[in-house]
Amino acid sequence: MTIADTLREAACALAQFSDTARLDAELLMAQALGVSRSELLLRHGGAAVPAGFAPLLARRMGQEPVAHILGRQEFHGLEFLVNADVLIPRADSETLVEAALAACPAPARVLDCGTGSGALLLSVLAERPRAEGIGIDRSPAALTVAAANAARLGLADRARMVPADWSVPGWAADLGSFDLILANPPYVEEAAVLARSVRQFEPAGALFAGPEGLDDYRLLIPQLPGLLAPGGKAVVEIGASQAEAVTAIAGAADLSASLHRDLGARPRVLVLEIGLGKAGNRG
Question: Which CATH superfamily is domain 72-281 in?
Fold first, then answer.
């Protein structure tokens, strides 16, 4: 059986639970061959199937995320190392990066709260070569991944990864102030129905935030004014149904909020700044 035949069969099998079954199969085959997906499609369709493909496919059939199998994920034009210690960076979160770059075009200091793989912080720093940043996370394992990504991307001299937990008093005492704060905190409701690939394979501590998914917003957002430099902006990812609730939490902390939507037109990001005002909307 050729690679082309095997890809068709694998895509059919994966389609029972994956919306990207053909892409999944192609990425796994490229990994088994040690080539890029483009090279696979251009040059290897008629070749024999490599022995390494079957175990990779078996892992995916167990609904392990492709990013975990490959050990990497593309985000905002960069490639990030990922594993089970961090959330997989998703395309929807690129909305946060774009909103941050627009809201604060020339930040000197950037803070990423709950940095995980470092994808948000490092994506911003890659676009702003004069900026320096700190990524905080309560997970030492996540910080190890973030530091490795900073090194791979040539950003280690401008990105420092620091252990910190915003639920612990005094966590930010030595951090200083920031022109731009990024945050993609846990925001999934505890009872939410998630795909097995998410619930079983991604870190629960980075996903769930109480019965409404709002617990971490209630902890973190009131602390943001004390971390923002004059004129600074905080850019926070939210769940699709949480805009009103998180805007209210921000308003109680004297932060105004403007809403940004992702490419699917879903509410995705709030840009916060000091100065209580009526929340605005952006398409």
Answer: Vaccinia Virus protein VP39 (3.40.50.150)
